[in-house]
Design brief:
CATH superfamily: Ribokinase
Distance between the termini: 36 Å
Shape: globular
Helix content: 40-55%
CATH topology: UDP-N-acetylmuramoyl-L-alanine:D-glutamate ligase
CATH class: Alpha Beta
Oligomer: single chain
CATH architecture: 3-Layer(aba) Sandwich
Strand order of the largest sheet: 1-10-9-8-7-6-5-2-3-4
Radius of gyration: 18 Å
């Protein structure tokens, strides 16, 4: 059967018109809000900030827990701060600040280092419920939500950048009839993600058998990986968030192009 919904990207981008039509100035290139940090750990949001600038975002703001303000404000002047718990993660009182900043952004990225505090989990759930815009989640930020995934499974404008283990947990929690495993073949994974993203409105990027796999609205693309990239989720998520906010009506094309962009040396 001809799988017209499966596109393969090799050496050149599948959708070169997106690269040709990129915004010519920073003012036109969109705004991204990056939310992360826990205790005194803010490596993920700081790296995501650098990756987003490299991907061509117009402006990026990083929101960190207030517990870091004294330590971080001098070395990371781009950061803003929201109320934190005694342990240094985001408190529920942060919701107003997050909603305010996200209302002025074109997309939101949660790159990890979010902590596993139950109060922070409730905060993220509340934010996703109230904020209607684009949200990209990866690493620990995805972990805290895929265990009880009903909200993100039904949420529009949501992208998950997941390792295969996380994808397995998501599929299991969603009671998807086919298991996502590291032993499955690439064709089987592609077919399963086609069905999964036809059933649920979220987008997924994962990596399996030397391929990146993008799935959105039943459309799937695969991109061959020629070099080893043991740390890939953060960079991929940042590029995906940027390309997506710059092409909001073409999520499949944007995320497929973002993978190619993230792989450039």
């Amino acid at each position: 059967m001809d799988q017209v919904w499966w596109r393969k990207q090799v050496d050149k981008p599948l959708f070169p018109e997106l690269e040709w039509s990129r915004p010519e100035t920073r003012v036109q290139a969109g705004r991204l809000l990056i939310i992360g940090g826990n205790g005194y750990e803010f490596k993920a949001p700081a790296n995501a900030y650098g990756d987003a600038l490299e991907a061509g975002v117009g402006a990026a703001t990083v929101l960190l827990p207030g517990s870091m303000q004294k330590v971080v404000s001098d070395i990371f002047p781009e950061a803003e701060f929201a109320p934190s718990t005694p342990s240094g993660s985001f408190a529920r009182e942060s919701l107003a600040s997050i909603l305010d900043l996200s209302s002025r952004a074109d997309g939101v990225l949660l790159p990890g280092d979010i902590g596993r505090n139950s109060e922070t989990t409730v905060l993220l759930e509340s934010f996703l419920q109230k904020y209607p815009g684009q949200v990209t989640l990866t690493k620990e930020a995805a972990d805290v939500l895929i265990r009880q995934p009903l909200q993100i499974l039904q949420r529009q404008h949501t992208l998950l950048v997941l390792a295969m283990g996380q994808l397995r947990q998501l599929g299991s929690a969603a009671h998807f009839p086919r298991a996502f495993t590291t032993e499955m073949g690439l064709v089987q994974l592609v077919e399963s993600l086609h069905d999964f993203t036809e059933r649920y409105p979220l987008g997924i990027i994962t990596r399996h058998q030397d391929h990146y796999v993008v799935a959105v609205n039943g459309q799937v693309s695969t991109t061959a990986v020629k070099t080893d990239q043991p740390v890939w989720r953060l960079t991929t998520a940042a590029h995906a968030a940027v390309w997506w906010l710059q092409n909001p009506t073409k999520p499949f094309e944007a995320l497929t192009t973002a993978v190619h962009s993230a792989l450039k040396p």
